[in-house]
Amino acid sequence: MHEQRLDRRLFLRTAAATGAALTVGTTLGTQPAAAAPGGFPDYTYVRTLLTASKLKYNPTGEIIFPCVRGVYDKLSSPLGRYYLYYAPHDPPGGICLAYGDSLEGPFTEYPSNPIVSNDWSPHYSVSHVSSPHVLWNQDADEFWLYFHGPNTTTRLARSADGINFTYDKVVLSASMLPAGTTETSYARVFRHDLPARDAAYVMVFMTNNTTNHRDIHWGWSADGRTWTYDQQPLIRHTDVDAVNVGGPHLLHRDGSTYVVYNKDRSSGGDIMITEVGNDFGKRDHLGVFYNSRSAAPENGRAASPCFGTDGGVPYMIYEAGERLAGSIAVARG
Asked: Which superkingdom does the taxonomy of this entry point to (predicted)?
């Protein structure tokens, strides 16, 4: 057991070093799920971190898509050791921030949320903005925020302090994918070298089309700003017997690369895992990564995970509960 725990911690340190988002998780009085494929940590629910009804900025009564970044080693006077980004989805949405000193919480809501709104003159005025993913870009020495709004468009903004952002550009739109694509959103970006493609960054994201079934797509970039996108899905909903899949995140372990993502609640509501390999040439669907339990707060759905370590302990932060009616929770491995 001790050797297994050390192995898990080594994995999460590796994941963090390669740009994987930070996450939280552990159990208070619940039993862990069956072992995750590939020797990954078995995450168990610890507590709820954020609930929409308890937030000052709460335009729609719902929040989604957490992304946590350790800032203690990047900023001289941060608000806390960790910044937790999240957003409502429904109009007007708004990119929000909370901060804390532990991945298990508590997190304090930033008093001037949203830090990015659905109206950013002269760059855009849209129905909503949501799904924040923040990358620490070591090449630029900046925080890079990828977010969607509307559902057809993913945008980039940049910041020196993780709070005050400057608009950059559109990095992804439905027009860049095959005809009939209706959504390109929920993107996460990671530092990942692909020498054969002259790329240093990888994006994984969700798409929808006129069939109204959601898949996972991917793209690659030399600089994180200008992207090339594979025109074929990385993971099809039919590959894993789902109506929809979404919320993808990249992980690394034992010299290979994996994508974790969630099934829709009608298809089981679990977080799944697929090995894609370092060159994204594999499609080895390994099954359930995290089993969403029927008990609150998950109520049969876990989604949009992000990962990291705190004091050598692996964590996962994720959406818990029915879409647009859930909370942000933390689990420990």
From this structure: Bacteria
Q: What's the mean pLDDT when you consider all of the chain?
A: 90
User: pLDDT, tens digit, for every residue of 226-251?
Assistant: 999 999 999 999 999 999 999 999 99
pLDDT tens for 249-304 read 999 999 999 999 999 999 999 999 999 999 999 999 999 999 998 999 999 999 99
Max Cα–Cα distance, the chain, nearest Å: 56
CATH homologous superfamily of 2-332 equals: Glycosyl hydrolase domain; family 43 (2.115.10.20)
Which one, of 150, 159, 223, lies nearest residue 189 by Cα?
223
Per residue, the 3-state secondary structure of the chain, as one string, reads CHHHHHHHHHHHHHHHHCCCCECCECCCCCCCCCCCHHHCCCCEEEEEEECHHHCCCCCCCCCEEEEEEECCCCCCCCCCCEEEEEECCCCCECEEEEEECCCCCCCEECCCCCCECCEECCCEECCCEEEEEEEEECCCCEEEEEEECCCCEEEEEEECCCCCCEEEEEEEEHHHCCCCEEEEEEEEEEEEEEHHHCEEEEEEEEEEECCCCCEEEEEEECCCCCEEECCCCCECHHHHCCCCEEEEEEEEECCEEEEEEEECHHHCCCEEEEECCCCCCCCEEEEEEECCCCCCCCCCCEEEEEEEEECCEEEEEEEECCCCCCEEEEEEC
Quick one: which of 23, 29, 61 has its CA closest to 321?
61
Strand partners, 79: none
Contact (CB, 8 A) for 155 and 170: yes
Residue 149, pLDDT score: 97
Distances in Å between the Cα of 136 and the Cα atoms of 75, 87, 216 are 11, 19, 23
Q: What is the pLDDT of residue 38?
A: 64
